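User: I'm curious whether this sequence folds into something compact or stays loose and floppy. Could you predict its structure so I can see for myself?
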Amino acid sequence: ALETGIETRETVLGYTQRGGSPTAFDRNMATLMGGHATEMAANKQFGRMVALIDGKVSSRSLEEVAGKLKLVPVDHPLVIQGKRIGISFG
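Assistant: Here's the prediction. I'll summarize afterward.
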């Protein structure tokens, strides 16, 4: 082993994320989005981001989305349910 004098530690990403372990949906979505991003790069489609639009993996130009906010209404069912189970929204 190479001695550098620098202390390092292993970190499991799941421990540092607030969301916990990924669900089957998370894993499937990551596979679909990663595959789409790979195809975009192979086809030299740069300056775009992968997005879920109307339930389908697609892409949008960065110019179209940069600097815009997508707000979630406080009465959205996910916000209401999250509050009921004790999720902190900041």
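Summary: The longest strand covers residues 48-53. Strands lie at 48-53, 56-61.
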